[in-house]
Prior knowledge:
- The protein is α/β, with parallel strands linked by helices.
- It folds into two domains: 19-231, HAD superfamily/HAD-like (Rossmann fold, 3-Layer(aba) Sandwich), CATH 3.40.50.1000; 242-471, Glycerol-3-phosphate (1)-acyltransferase, CATH 3.40.1130.
- 44% of the residues lie in helices and 16% in strands.
- It is built from 19 helices and 14 strands.
- It has helices at residues 5-12, 35-45, 51-65, 71-80, 87-105, 108-119, 132-141, 171-184, 201-206, 217-226, 241-252, 254-259, 262-266, 271-290, 319-327, 345-351, 365-377, 402-410, 456-471, and strands spanning 21-24, 123-131, 146-155, 158-164, 192-195, 209-213, 229-231, 292-297, 309-312, 331-336, 355-357, 381-384, 414-419, 436-442.
- It has a seven-stranded mixed beta sheet, with helices on both faces. A seven-stranded mixed beta sheet has the order 8-14-13-9-12-10-11, with helices on both faces.
- Strand 3 (146-155) and strand 4 (158-164) form a beta hairpin.
- Helix 2 (35-45) packs across helix 5 (87-105).
- The longest helix is centred in the middle third of the chain and has 20 residues, at 271-290.
- It is elongated.
- Mean pLDDT is 87; it is low at 476-481.
Amino acid sequence: MEAYQRFTTEIDASNRGKTTGAFFDFDGTIIAGHSVKDMFIERLKNGEVTGQEIFDLAAMIPRYFLKSDKFEDSLVSSIRNLEGTAEHKLIALGRKVARDKLVADVFPEIRAMIHAHRQNGHTVAIVSSATRYQIEPLAAKLGIAEIICTELEVENGNFTGEVIGEPCYGENKVTAVRAFARKRRIALRKSFFYSNGAEDVPLLEAVGHPVAVNPDGKLDGIAKHNGWREILLDSRGSVGVGDLARTILTFGTAVPFLAAGLPMRVMGASERDTTNFSLSAWTSIASMIARLKLIVDGEENLWSDRPAVFIFNHVSAIDLLITAKLLREDAVGVAKKELKNQPLMGPALRYTGTVFVDRDHISDPKAALKPAIDALHAGRSVVIAPEGTRSKDGKLGNFKRGAFHLARQAGVPIVPIVIHNAHDALPRKSLVVRPAEVKVTVLKPIPTAGWALRDVSPQTRNVRRTYLEMLGEADTSVRTA
């Protein structure tokens, strides 16, 4: 079962093959917000924006939102301000904005729909009035190779300030898409188009599957009149008071729930029982507050062979909640010894039975891993991120061998937990939890009985290779640390 499956049902039931097109508007449809704003702000910070450019942008914005016929004129005027600018500067700027801002603004539901179209073999393309420099870096991250957009003229590596052909807006979008479809023998009547704006009605009318995504007022009325599918999404966009409150409560409720177990201790309950109670209660409530839904394949593997060393790929701070909710009881995490005495985190980690590893003994694996081995021998599973730290770019990092040494020395299996899209719930560089459906695959336990010391490195590489395959990532490195 996939995350966001209710959004992909129509796609899954549609014709297969590349003669079906899946066309997506960019700003406001794939991403919440407008890429031109993010590009402009970055250039403004770099001191690259002129007074004339500010004037032209100020004239263009109301024309865009009012769907004015003069929007194309404003777009062309704005592009003229790029005359003489080196193309490589805009390429670098587009990559930076995509990495630092736009990736986190992608609606996860739309990402799932793009993936479903690709799985069905459809020809997926972005169709937008934006330029290639705004679109291409993010399109590459989404696996979209085809872009139909407003193209800028370049001579000798510099922009001339002119548009090649016509801006890709309104009726011009239909013309461009028809030409694209003819070359690739795409049947528009079998195809999909997703948009949020009324300026795209001509193209929505030209396809067999028009979809209005968070439609503006005018498009909403037209979509309802025509019986078009409408999708309303609130998983991205401006951060409101509700989002901040939800984030604070998601993590802030951990301490009260841990404290709730103290009366049980006073009444004679064991540390293990009170910790299990507190963590199970917190993860259930916190997931509801965060609007976090886990779609789990292989859930039976969480319980079939315990105690075990559970490993997970670490891409987001929300992984703490995800792994705690999955394991629920008789499981402890691993942290560096230095955290043990921190004023707030230290007591909470100690209360939950966290295993503290002394990194000063890194040259002596047996000494470094002894606390974790003791926990396993006591019947508690241990959960570790073999990358050692959170991924900085969302890609799987190199695996350290500590978790594999631990499982071998304790004589317990390794259970890989593959978290596919935790970044949907808590994006990189964000401090705000967003509503999300996160897919998790729990693989079958890997026995370590009979492993010799020389087996640890190849087994580490094999497991990492499995993660790469499950996550759909190219294996550019299989080094272990």
